What we know:
The chain is α/β, with parallel strands linked by helices and 287 residues long. It has helices spanning 2-7, 30-38, 57-63, 92-97, 102-117, 133-139, 152-172, 174-183, 209-229, 241-246, 248-259, and strands at 20-22, 43-44, 72-73, 81-82, 121-125, 144-149, 236-240. A five-stranded parallel β-sheet has the order 2-5-1-6-7.
Amino acid sequence: ELEILLFLNKQEKINKNPHVFITGLPRSGTTMLLEYIYKSEKFSSLKYLDMPFVMSPNFYSKISKKKNINKIERMHNDAVFYDLDSPEAFEEVFFTTFKYNWQEKIVDYVNLIITKYGNKRYLSKNNYNFQRLDELHKIFPNSKFVMPFRDPLSHAISMMKQHENFCFEQKKDNFTLRYTNYLGHFEFGLNHKKYFNNEIGNNNNFSDINYWLFQWSKVYNYLLNNYQQNQENKNIFFLSYEKFCEETNLFNDKLNKYLEIETKIEKLSNKNNIEVIKSSNIDVNLL
């Protein structure tokens, strides 16, 4: 409330700006896309610098001192490095705080982030926003939605491995569990929450590859059906991670044109896609 009182510019109408929302399951290339788009220097986005007061980025910047911290690898152990100036998905704190009336608050919140960083387009990476597509589109009608996806088995293996990694880290250090709870990140770990209830024997075994395959199937079928039913009302770009790796230059051009930006990413290596799981229990109906 103090942030709004001191810094909100109510004359600034930003709901019609072409903001960008990246959403979909984790481990699909969402962070790669966030960094790719942010490099265009056309967007305002929350950064690690805004932690821990992500609800009041302007006020916090007035009382905090910026520290120079070398880039470190994130907890995922996946060769993705960050520093305080790296953009990240912290807006779920906002959605958790205003769980029942976020629709009334989000324009002001986005406006405050734009006020701090100056660029008139907002960039968001939030794995849970696929559940808010219709409402976000109504509030920000000119926004663009980017939804990366991967081969289901490769993707499910990556999510299951990351779940095991987060469980290990959270057991080792309770702060890690409290940190992910604060951020509203329940994708992996001891605090994991399902995207969809599992109709296949009510499977709650997070060490079962079929659990993660089921989540993949439900999420992307939901997105595809939503897109097909409301295609005229949405601006959605489905991006295959594997094809992006194979044809990086082509997708640089396609994505830049769609987002109206100029940036590029070097050719990606698709190491995760060659992961193999030896199991006779894979439910082929989920592939």
